[in-house]
Amino acid sequence: MSRAFETRCIHGGEESRLKDAFRAVSFPIYQTATFSHTETGHNGSGFDYTRESNPTRTHTEDVVASLEGARHAIGFSSGMAAISCFFDLFGRGDHIICSEDLYGGVFRLNRLVTEKKGVSVSYVDTSDLQELRASFRPETRAVYLETPTNPMMHITDLHMAAKLAHEHGALLAVDNTFLSPYFQNPLALGSDIVIHSASKFLSGHNDTVAGFICLNDDILSEELRLLAKTTGASLSPFDSFLVERGIKTLAVRMQKQQENAVALAELLSGHSKVREVCYTGLRTHRGYALNLSQSKGFGSMISLHTDTAETALRVLHKVRLFTFAESLGGTESLVTYPLIQTHPDVPQQLKDKLGIDGTLLRMSVGLENIDDLTADILQALEG
Fold first, then answer.
1. Is residue 242 located within the same domain as residue 256?
2. Residue ranges making up the domain that contains 207
């Protein structure tokens, strides 16, 4: 009998590759740099050096792979390390299509690293299938997208994006950080690679930095593992433990955080100081039906435009329960100013097009009591 998602969060998949010798309920932290060999060229444990492999990381990778329905999951020292490893698959003459509404760090990575290797990158509205279709070239090797996007919450049809990518011999990579595997499983919809910043919802406590790549292709998995081993971007044993511990409550956290987010989005939608609320759980959102057709929920990320930049700045400095900070997905509610915190590396022309301006706030709704959250944001809005 297959295990339900909530059970896999705690126990992993049907067959865990590793069992602790002492039958510890909480899988141990193997805080070691290296492992002894039993004879020349052979290590009885299967582990040699932690940069390459470590039992704690392997156990956590197995849990993450189970949640995404993947054969392989590879743990990295950050979400950006995972994204960087994916882009390292490509070289001079290759072309990659990216969502134009995208975490600002990816723009910085491509400008400072990817494009200097001779890889060309196009940024397009992947939620517009006609625009996506027209952006392919003979040398296109991959499509990289987020859905919902960061920060404007646009939705891309994953089944159709995969179909278009595969028709052109390209990979489809999806950053699934915002919805997590609890709400969305891109591999089941045709994607080739799923990427997570596990610093966010997977770990869920704002206490660690981590990333994962999930996939089913055995050969591609080996190539990515070799890149991770070579660049040294592997997830540490202690951070692997923190992620695995956080995942145990992923299902209940995601459900409650979504409940809070729906209530808050509905409240803010009618507020005189709020010009627009971008949340996929609102029926007025243009991607509402599409998102529901390919996911099991909306998550707890809300972006909103206040009436003026002055109102946005007042909110940032007057909140008492929300924390004015970067990041997202933890138990604590956060409010972020994308213009200067998460998206300063996005070209100005594109920021203007997307609406990333001084009135935009991004909220990660946490687990606090909804009445307390509501009171806090209202007092900040109303001054």
1. no
2. 5-247
Nearest to 260 by CA among 319, 314, 331: 331
Residue 200 appears among annotated catalytic residues: yes
Identify whether 218 is a catalytic site residue.
Answer: no
**How many Å apart are CA 202 and CA 246, to the nearest integer?**
6
The catalytic position among 3, 48, 49, 51 is 51
Same domain (yes/no): 224, 282: no
| Structural domain count, the chain | 2
Q: Does the annotation count 103 as an active-site position? A: yes
Dump pLDDT digits (tens) for 139-177: 999 999 999 999 999 999 999 999 999 999 999 999 999
C-alpha triplet 17, 202, 350: angle, nearest 5°: 130
| Residues β-bridged to residue 123 | 98
pLDDT tens across 188-242, in order?
999 999 999 999 999 999 999 999 999 999 999 999 999 999 999 999 999 999 9
231-286 pLDDT per residue, tens:
999 999 999 999 999 999 999 999 999 999 999 999 999 999 999 999 999 999 99
Per the residue annotation, which of 103, 123, 182, 279 is the catalytic one?
103
